[in-house]
Amino acid sequence: MKRIILLLAIVVVGASQAVRGQNVAVKTNLLSDAVFSPNLGIEVGLAPKWTLNVSGQLNTWNLSHDRRWKHWVAQPEIRYWLCDRFGAHFFGAHVHGGQYNIGGIDGRVKFLGTDVRKLKDTRYQGWFAGAGIAYGYAWILGRHWNLEAEIGFGYSYTRYSKYRCSGCGKKVESNRPHHYVGPTKAAINLVYLF
Fold first, then answer.
1. Which of 11, 65, 81, 191 keeps 20 to 30 A from 25, CA to CA?
2. Element (H or E) spanning 113, and its range?
3. Which of 21 and 50 is assigned the larger pLDDT?
């Protein structure tokens, strides 16, 4: 009888470990880390092929020469994995939102209706919200480590106020809307699985 109880206990413990295995992941986006924007993500398994990924980013750095690049972003995403979760190809649908205060940056890019060159002599402060779809791939590096690449495309709506220079408080425009369609997500994530 003791052997049967011991065998049942081993089976129950073993089965519960298989159910919990690789159910939660913690990650950081190396692309955001490269531009000094601290970020963190957590992904939770919902079903054998479905996960919920929630990532966030916060940048509060004060830059030299009266430049500003402050923001916070939250981006929850539901993912469908073509194979098992946390491995190989996946598709996602995400929403995003946040606030920003940016100006005094000497950008030389005009891309999909967004002119970064305007940031040199002005400052923009506002909020944004939107949604998009994404595709990604996860490489299994080890029992607990993955590397993940993802690109997303979608829409963002923003309302902002424009200021004459990056450091002064002279408001030029207020509550102005802007619509954006284009890339909404780019990530190379280093992932730790529990």
1. 11
2. none
3. 50
